[in-house]
Amino acid sequence: MRICKLVATVAFSILAGNAFASDGAGCKTARLADGNWTDNIAQNGLAAVLLKPLGYDTHLEVLSAPLIFASLKNKDVDVFLNSWSPSVDSLVKPYLDDGSVVQLTVNMTGAKWTLAVPDYVWEGGLRNFSDIAKYRDRLDRKIYGIESGSDGNQIILDMIAGDAFGLKDFELVESSEQAMLTEIQRKVRGKDWAVFMGWAPHPMNNRLAMRYLEGGDDWFGPDQGGATVWTAARSGFAQECPNLGRFFTSLKFSVELENTMMGYILEDGMDGPAAAVKYIGLHPELLEGWLEGVTTLDGAEGLPAVRKGLGID
């Protein structure tokens, strides 16, 4: 309820006040936090591609999750598009409480984020968090996470430290997202057992025969880590740059969009902007919603400028 009220209040204040104001020159560069996760790369790529024909530049700061929120507080970055609730709730709560970080909008529903296993491991009996320790030897006492500092890794470390589910003798293997997936694919080829961080949206759900574990509600949230993703901004950003505030409030994603764009990045070798251009070319109807009420930096109507800039008739 608290999140909904904050989002509604911020969104209303942006849209109700000075609805078609253009931004000043000090707003020309939007500074985006980048967690270096493929879904965030896709999100930031989409934002950059849309902002360029509007007359804005984007600057990416690659940061770990804890540093992202600290950087928003310190006004070193403006926006972060990949705040997953409830998994980031403990990280971001102090900043929401002191007002240094605000929630602009919920940008995606239907996501999930929890521990997963290959389907043959599920069929072998490991279906619940409480089953993990039973198979410690087959798992080599390891759980595969992503990069150090991520909120998912911290949850796993907290479980190990607190001996939740009897995991005190387990090790968290930290690596990049891609390195983790490469290792899991190697294990799948050999039918070796593994527990790893899984999430949707992500093309892993199509590439791997995998199942999400039950029983982790107290750690990753209900519905197998069901998540809401929201856009975080530094305090004052939407007031200082109302047009950018309106843009980032209107920029919404879907699981299907991110699954597809992430596939372009991971499987086709595209960068975020190239993936965004391809996806927009196939779904130009999305531009109207993303750009409703948004202008160029100098105050012209935004939608025609973006359509022209992207070569969309």
From TrEMBL:
Residues of the ABC-type glycine betaine transport system substrate-binding domain: 31-280
UniProt cross-references to InterPro entries, sorted A to Z: ABC_choline_sub-bd, ABC_Gly_betaine_transp_sub-bd
Signal sequence annotation: 1-21
Stored Pfam families: OpuAC
UniProt keyword list: Signal
Protein name in UniProt: Choline ABC transporter substrate-binding protein
